[in-house]
Amino acid sequence: NVYITIGENTYIIHDGNLIKAGLEYKAVKTLKGITANDNTTTRIITDGKGVKRTVVTCSSSLNGWSLSQSISKKQFSQQRQWYYFLLFFICFIILMSGTFLTIFLNHNINVPIKKIRRKIRQISTGDFSADPSIEWNNEFGDIGKGINTLSLDVVNLMDKRVSDEKQKNELEYQILLSQINPHFLYNTLNSIKWMATIQNASGIAEMITSLARLLKKVSKEAKQQTTIRDELSILKDYFLIQKYRYGGIISIEYEIESEDLYDCQILKFSLQPLVENAIFHGIEPKGEAGLIRVEIRHFNEKDVIIDITDDGIGMTPDKITETLSGETKDSTAFFRKIGIANVNNRIQYTYGEKYGLSIISEPGKYTRMNILIPYTKQE
Predict the structure, then answer these.
(1) Is the backbone of residue 98 left (phi > 0), alpha (psi -120 to 50) or beta?
(2) Phi-psi label, residue 344: left if phi above 0, alpha if psi -120 to 50, beta otherwise
(3) 142-161 pLDDT tens trace
(4) What is the DSSP annotation of 79-122?
(5) End-to-end CA separation in angstroms for the chain
(6) DSSP characters for 244-303?
(7) N or C: where does the chain have the smaller number of CB atoms within 10 Å of the terminal CB?
(8) What is the per-residue pLDDT across 181-239, written as a single tens digit (0 to 9) for each?
């Protein structure tokens, strides 16, 4: 019902007519804070039949005028159901969003973390195989790619270490092959030397003395490193033997930059294979006299470089590659098992890949072999 109050009279608006109504009611409660403006009042009343109703009254600007309406309980109930439905729908949306977010986070965070942790556990147990399932197109995928790369690097490092150890053992075995019963040879050569001395064959005695000293150094000293001074002594004995062999058509020159270089450490039998290569593959094929020049100097404050240059037939780039790789099949010369590739590998295994052997050559003119070693003095 809609009521209009004018002064002290109240009328019911019904079908466009005003019907005077005698209202008997009792105000039970005034509801505050729920109206849109201060001119509107909401009250709960009890009519003459004891029925509770909610009445909304709006006062007019005209003094004593007001408009009231009693709210239908059915409408109130329908409105309340609509609010309940709206609240239920909001809760459903929130629940579904939370469920979706949980599934999304689990798929994009928890699952990748579990896979990465599982891969790390596999690595800790010795399984270094790559796992493509941990490589995604996100930040976790970058971590997975890093772990796979790390695994492969560890495998490569382990394989390289095994290969290096194998090659190192082979190198040591090849050195042993060159020392076949040196004591027996040394004693026999001493006997030949004294026989040559008694018969006034000074050249034979000198040659055998050099060979005996060479064998003595092989048999007596087990250390792999020696000084440049001792290494040059071995080289001089070896070259003297070859000089007699070739009738004096080969010669050698030495140039040492400073006295302190004589005490620098170097791997034993590092220079002899290079001079041997210069004789057999450089000067001998030329068919005429040749010169070998050995130059030792400081490369910088920490390193020393040794140049061995011959004026032989030179080497082609393919021959240089073959020589450094050790693929040559020629193994007829003495000490050939300790070849150039062997020297290069031994230097790199001992001092690091920064150091080693390089070859520069111009066919028909010269060959220069460079050894780079660290400058370390004998303790």
Answers:
(1) alpha
(2) alpha
(3) 888 888 888 888 888 888 88
(4) HHHHHHHHHHHHHHHHHHHHHHHHHHHIIIIIHHHHHHHHHHHH
(5) 117
(6) HHTTT-EEEEEEES-GGGGGBEEETTSSHHHHHHIIIIIIGGGTS-EEEEEEEEESSSSE
(7) C
(8) 555 566 666 667 776 777 777 777 777 777 777 777 766 655 778 899 999 998 988 88
